[in-house]
Amino acid sequence: MATQLGITEQDIRSSSTPAPAKVQAIQKVVPIKGGIFGPQGSGKSATTALIAAAYSALYCNRAPVGVIDPEAAWPFLKRRIFDVEGINLIMKPYRSFKSLHSSLRELEREGCCAWIADPITLHWNELMETFKGKKGYVAIDQWGDIRQAWGQYVVDFLNSPMTCIAAGRLGNEFEEREEEDSRGNLRTKTVKVGTKFKAGGGESFGYEPHLLLEMSLERKAKRVRGEEREGEGRMVHRADVLKDRTWALNGMVLRWSDKAGYKKGGYSQVWDSIKPHFLEVQATQKQGLVGLDTSETMVNTEGNSEYYQKKQRKDVLSAELHATMEYLWGGTAKEAKQMRMKVFEHIFGFKSKEAAEAASLSVIERGVRILQAFEKRVKAAKEAGVDLLAKSDDEILQVIDLEIKAFDAGEADTEDLPF
Question: What pTM, to 2 d.p., does this model score?
Answer without folding.
Answer: 0.61
